[in-house]
Amino acid sequence: MGFIPIILTMGGAILLFFMAVHQSMIAKKNAILRLQAAIFDGFRVFGANLSLEPAISPGVVDQIDEGFRTLNAKADAKNNAQFEAKVKIPYRDMKVTIDQYNRLVKKKPYSFVAKAMGHRAIGK
Q1: Which of the four pLDDT bands, split at 50, 70 and 90, describes residue 56?
Q2: Residues 27-48 pLDDT 10s
Q3: Cα–Cα distance measured from residue 67 to residue 53, given in angstroms and rounded to the nearest whole number
Q4: How far apart are CA 120 and CA 71, in angstroms?
Q5: Distance (Å, rounded) from C-alpha 119 to C-alpha 111?
Q6: Cβ(98)–Cβ(61) under 8 Å?
Q7: Which residues does 63 contact at the CB level (< 8 Å), separation at least 6?
Q8: Are residues 107 and 15 in contact, defined by beta-carbon separation less than 8 angstroms?
Q9: Measuring CA to CA, which of 6, 16, 53, 114 is 20 to 30 A from 64?
């Protein structure tokens, strides 16, 4: 009778840890999707014709990188405050969020949860 409460308490703590980390990873993925949608809206404003939907995949991130470099290289986009607000800031935030997500997936106690729940690193 002495070990049963200890085992139940440890099991509950582990389950709670799994649920908290899983929710954190889902929140990061949702933030990435929202930022991608904002970037695509900004691309449409500046005439870039990317016919992609927001998705958590390296291919979409690479296409966003390419589109951002193309728009950033244009002379009229460099000094435009609207470009900064609609494309540059969401792009930067997306890159930071992807980096945070990838570090979380690779870090040791969280990598077990990521592997068990099916989360994988995004990009390279």
Answers
A1: confident
A2: 999 999 999 999 998 888 887 7
A3: 14
A4: 30
A5: 9
A6: yes
A7: 50, 52
A8: no
A9: 114
Residue 87: partners with Cβ closer than 8 Å, 6 or more residues away: 39, 42, 43, 46, 68, 71, 77
Query: Do 41 and 94 contact (CB within 8 A), yes or no?
Result: no
Per-residue tokens: 109: 């106690």
Alpha-carbon distance of 66 to 13, in angstroms, equals 44
Q: How far apart are CA 39 and CA 66, in angstroms?
A: 12
Instruction: Give the Cα separation of 24 and 30 in Å (integer).
Output: 10
| 55 pLDDT above the threshold of 80 | yes
pLDDT tens-digit readout, 72-111: 887 565 568 888 888 899 999 999 999 999 999 999 999 9
Per-residue b/e over 6-41, b at no fewer than 16 CB within 10 Å? eeeeeeeeeeeeeeebbeebeebbebbbebbebbbe
Distance (Å, rounded) from C-alpha 124 to C-alpha 116? 21
